[in-house]
Amino acid sequence: MTFFILTLFKAGYKLRTSTLYHLLVGKRTSSVLLHGFFHENLPYLGALPNLKEEVFRKELQRLIEKQLILVNDGFGELTVEGQRVLGKESYPFYGLNNLRYGRMRENMWHMILFSVQVISHLSFNEKNYLPIENRPYYLQQIKKWLAHSKVDVIVKFKQELELIFQKLPVNEADFLANQFSGVEFQGKTAYQLLPEKWLEEPWSSLYQQNAIDLFLAQVMQDNSGEIFRLLSNLDQQNLNQSMLITKQFFLAGKSIDEILKLRHLKQGTVNDHFIEWALIDENFPFKSFELINFNELDKNQIVNARFQEYDSSYLTFRLSQIYRMREK
C-alpha cells in the first residue's frame, strides 16, 4: 500500500492529501474529479472504496518518515529520493478508467462470464448444466438478450470475443480468458490467475480493474455488436443519469440558461454536469464554448491558474483548462 500511495505523486505536482483520499474512495464531486484529472490520478477514482482514512494517513506518515514525500499545509509533494524510488519499479495501469467503468465494472464482467458459459453450452445444444450465475437480474438479461438476437448470435458472439482478445495485451487477455467457463472447461478465480507481482493489495484489485477496463473499452468501440448490446443496460448505469439529461438537452440545441430553467437546477449543479461530461467523453463539444487561450502556459501554470484572474464564467474557465491540458 505504501508504494502505491507514493505512485500517486509521480507527476510531480503538489497534491492536496485530503482530496487524494476522497479520490481513492470514490467521492465524485467536480473538485475531486478535476484534482484527479489535473494531477494524472483520475483513473484511480474509487479504486479503493474501503480504504480507511486512518490507514491512508499512516501510509502518508511512512512516506514522510522515509523522506519520499514532503507534506506542508495539507499538500504533499514528491522528493528527489521519492523520484529515485519510483524509478526502480513500473506499475503501468494504462487501461484503468474508474470514471467511466467504476460503478458497474464488476457487474458487467459477471455478465460476460455468464454469457460465455451460456453461449458455450448453446453451441453444443447442451441444456443440462449448473449456471455460474443464478441472480434474477442476470438470468432475465441473458434471456432477453437471446430473445432479441439473430439466429447467428453464437457465431457472432465468438467472433467478437476473439477480435477483442486479439487487441488486448497478452498477459491481460490470458488473465481474463482463463476465468471463462463452458462445455468441458472450468474457469479459475481471478486470484488464482494473478501474476505473482500483483498478488498483494491494492495491486491485485488494480490489476483486475485495469484488465477488465481494457476489455470494456474494446466492447464500447463497436456499438453495434452482440456483446455491446448485452452490456448496454449495465453500462448506462456507469454514467451519472442527471448529467446525461443535461447532455441531451445541450446536444438538442438548448443553451445553458434554458437548461437551468427546464431542469430547475442550480448553476453549480449544471457546471458539475458539464465538467464530468468533458472529463469522461473525448468527443465533448469544446468548440461550442469560447475557450480561454492557455497556449502560452505550461501544464503547471494551467493547473495553478486562478479563475478570478480571467474574464470568463467558472464553467468556461474549467472547460478551457481541461481542453488545454488534453492538448499538452
Characterization of this structure:
There is one protein chain. The protein has 328 residues and is mainly alpha-helical. The chain folds into three domains: 1-91, Winged helix-like DNA-binding domain superfamily/Winged helix DNA-binding domain (Arc Repressor Mutant, subunit A, Orthogonal Bundle); 102-238, no CATH class; 242-326, no CATH class. The protein has 18 helices and three strands. The chain has a three-stranded antiparallel sheet with strand order 1-3-2. The chain is globular. The two termini are 31 Å apart. This is Helicase Helix-turn-helix domain-containing protein. Residues 242-305 form the Helicase Helix-turn-helix domain. It comes from Enterococcus raffinosus ATCC 49464.
